[in-house]
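Review form for a predicted model. The reviewer records the input and the model, then writes brief findings.
Reviewer: anonymous (R2)
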Amino acid sequence: MNLNKKYQKFLKSISINKFAKYGVILMVSSFIIFFVLEFLRFVGILESALVGLYSYLSSPTLFVIGLLLIPFGWYKEMKLTGKPLKELISSKFDDTETSGTFFGSKLFLTLSGTVLASVIFLAFASTRMLSFMEEPVFCGTACHSTMTPEWTTYQESPHSRVRCVDCHVGEGVGALVDSKINGTWQMISVSLNLYEKPIPTPVHNLRPSRETCEKCHWPEKFYGNRLKTITKYDFDEFSTPKYTTLSLKIDSGEKTGVSGIHWHVNKDIKVTYSSINDKREEILWVKVEDKKGNIREFKNKNYVNQFADTDADERVMDCVDCHNRATHIYENPEKAIDQRIATGLLDKRLPFIKRVGLEAITGSFADKEYGLKFVKQHVESFYSKNYASTWIGFSESIDKAVKVLQSVYNRNIHPEMNIDWGTYPNHIGHEKDGGCFRCHNNDMVDNKGKAIPYDCTTCHSILAYDSKEPYQFLSSKVSDVADSSLHKYLQTEFLNSIQK
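Model under review:
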């Protein structure tokens, strides 16, 4: 009798009733399906996260259920017949092969081998499942409609090659277990539609930045000045560009002793704060403690009656308090248009392209498909009615403009998750009343009435502001740059960079 027929007979022998039989069917079928799907994923035929979810989660689960049904069936049969397990199984296996003790029989050896193979299979499947669940494609596509906005923005972010778990899951067994428990609840909430729309920013359970951001970005390397030119286009027919050039003071002060933007994460300084409902947008108070233990506290004059119950909400400031959209970046609509014009994706020769583009993408619609159609209709209608000659001569540029504007709309607007322009504010810079001005304002004062500095030159020197040329420096404020020699150096470096 060959090995295949022997194992078939073994499977029949342990299927002593319907429970055990169903268990065997579940075990064998889930085992085969797992390896078939694993092979298809390995060769690249199947790449869907849903297939992986079934392969690494559903198949092993069904396998375990089947594995448990078999001894349950044995137990039921022993209770029903009053016979011992050895007799029930051996009678269906082969009497000639079960001579001697049961533990030395081929039946026992086959049974032991099956159990060992099951343990190895489950260990392998569990390892593959954990590995798969750490892949960004799983995080972004397994729950398609729910995570589509985050997956879309992630793929176009500066951190698109950084795995989700590197920021959202801590190191060690405890963090892994916590993440899986949280993931289980997320699966339940998605299945039963219990989640919020839009999904709240996970500001409360993100890992500390010293364990994530600072693995690559070192505060002690933040020093000196960095030039940044911001290009903004007018709403006139020619979308006339205006330039603002800043000399950013990026010092952390750890080595140079010069304070700049990254002073907030200086290891010798501890900045803590509290915010309304712990959302980190409306700040109640700020405390600054130096390495000698000296504390200076600033309180928001607008919320004097809300200080008593905020001790539990105290938070140590780190990178994500400013870089809160470092990866899942939702754009400002006007800045999105400016950026596409600056990079040449939108043809600046098209009349009123800034105005028309902004009008096209800021329409509010309950259905995304209708919104995308509106973008196309608005752009084409404007040029066909008002610039017939432009329509003919720049048809390719207009078609490209439609596609680019639709991609901007598709990236940022997700009606199914109640995400529109401004749903997720970005705290870098000073968007409206957010960003730096959450703390740096004249309402945040200490016990002497002195406010946290909020002068423009605290973090940057303005070398050009809404100028026709990016190199038109505001030389009348040389003191803002520090001294005349530094001003000349910055001017030389900037001119060299733009000439390149």
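Findings: Residues 220 and 254 are 6 Å apart (CA to CA).
Further findings: The first strand starts at residue 225 and ends at 233.
Recommendation: see findings above.
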